[in-house]
Design a protein that fits this description.
Blueprint (H helix, E strand, L loop, with lengths): L1 H19 L10 E8 L2 E3 L2 E2 L3 E5 L3 E4 L4 E6 L4 E4 L4 E7 L2 E8 L1 E6 L3 E5 L4 E5 L5 E9 L2 E8 L2 E4 L4 E4 L3 E9 L11 E2 L8 E9 L26
Parallel strand pairs: 9-11
Antiparallel strand pairs: 1-4, 1-6, 2-3, 2-5, 5-8, 6-7, 7-10, 8-9, 10-13, 11-12, 12-15, 13-14, 14-17, 15-16, 17-19, 18-19
């Protein structure tokens, strides 16, 4: 009889531990948000059906005609376009979006930054207002950073420039002139560039020389708290 009572108590203890751990899978401190797929998408190479929790270090990717929306714990929001891939990292209270392929839109009140690691370029929104930015890799040696709403800062290893609302920074990889050892204004060396290469940045008006890629990113101002989804 005593053995039965002990077995029952052990079973209750095990169930309590299991049920307590169900809501969050992963380190809560590294939780970034909840990803929702529209079409065929993956998280770390695994199919993303419906929705899934996203943690620091996760890689999101989409196939043709698919998108992924990432609702963050802050009011910030991310939309990954078709045939695209990003790695998301958490640094303190900020989220860093590392674009590896394709195009990504993000809405930020200052807590989200985007990077193109191959170019050594970082994109930051204005902390004083909610900004909407688009970062796109247009080819092996070309990228575009558009300020769809609010202004942006584009930082290279050598300088930082401001991109006003409605304009875009056009980035291109160029070969440096051996006869000129000085870096001209608007140029910075990226971490992924080979020796003798540089990043040239020019500003263009969206709708003129620059064309933003159409992505259906909602610009609502709702600031609902996002909690980890169930398993």
């Amino acid at each position: 009889m005593r053995g039965h009572r002990h077995s029952h108590q052990f079973l209750v203890l095990v169930l309590a531990v299991l049920l307590t751990g169900l809501p969050v899978i992963g380190n809560p401190a590294e939780f970034i948000g909840v990803a929702k797929a529209n079409g065929k998408a993956e998280v770390n190479g695994t199919a993303l059906p419906g929705e899934r929790n996203v943690y620091s270090g996760d890689r999101l990717s989409t196939q043709q005609e698919a998108t992924v929306t990432l609702e963050c714990t802050s009011p910030d929001k991310l939309l990954l376009g078709p045939n695209s891939q990003v790695r998301v990292d958490k640094q303190g209270e900020s989220m860093v979006v590392n674009l590896e392929r394709g195009v990504v839109n993000f809405r930020s009140a200052g807590k989200t930054r985007a990077r193109i690691e191959a170019y050594g370029v970082e994109v930051r929104a204005n902390r004083d207002s909610s900004s909407v930015a688009q970062v796109a890799l247009l080819g092996p040696n070309k990228a575009q950073i558009a300020a769809l709403r609010g202004s942006l800062e584009v930082a290279t290893t050598s300088e930082t420039i401001t991109v006003p609302e409605g304009q875009a920074a056009m980035l291109s990889v160029q070969e440096e002139d051996d006869e000129d050892n000085r870096k001209p204004k608007g140029v910075g060396a990226g971490a992924g560039l080979t020796r003798g290469q540089k990043i040239a940045i020019t500003l263009a008006v969206i709708g003129g020389a620059a064309t933003a890629i159409a992505l259906p990113l909602a610009l609502d101002e709702d600031k609902e708290e996002v909690s980890p989804a169930g398993p």
